[in-house]
Write a structure and sequence with these properties.
globular, about 60% helix, single chain, Cytochrome Bc1 Complex, Chain D, domain 2, mainly alpha, about 110 residues
Length: about 110
């Protein structure tokens, strides 16, 4: 009986931690999407670029400009080119900027 109880408790604990991890990732992804929609969507609808069609947020254009990591995207948000709005840490905190960047890399193929 002890072993059965131990097995049940173990299964419940593993399930709880697995579900909690998935919820955190889903929540982070949703926050990244919400922040993208709030701060970026106006100029980058659907990942496009209303000013320069060669600088979209789609993988082929990001790769062409050697933008591969969330840090690369955050760097551009903080130090943009001439037509892009600059987003300071006061405008978009680092953790939110990283969530936006992760959302872009994962969802805008």
């Amino acid at each position: 009986m002890k072993y059965v109880l131990f097995a049940v408790v173990t299964v419940i604990a593993v399930s709880f931690f697995a579900l909690t991890g998935c919820a955190d990732e889903t929540q982070r992804e949703t926050q990244g999407e919400s922040a993208f929609n709030e701060h970026c969507m106006t100029c980058h609808p659907g990942g496009n670029n209303i000013f320069d069609s060669s600088k979209t947020l789609h993988k082929k254009d990001l790769d062409a400009h050697n933008i591969k990591t969330p840090e690369d995207i955050v760097h551009i948000m903080r130090n943009p080119g001439p037509q892009m709005t600059q987003f300071s840490k006061d405008d978009i905190p680092d953790n939110v900027a990283k969530e936006i960047a992760e959302y872009i890399l994962k969802n805008l193929k």
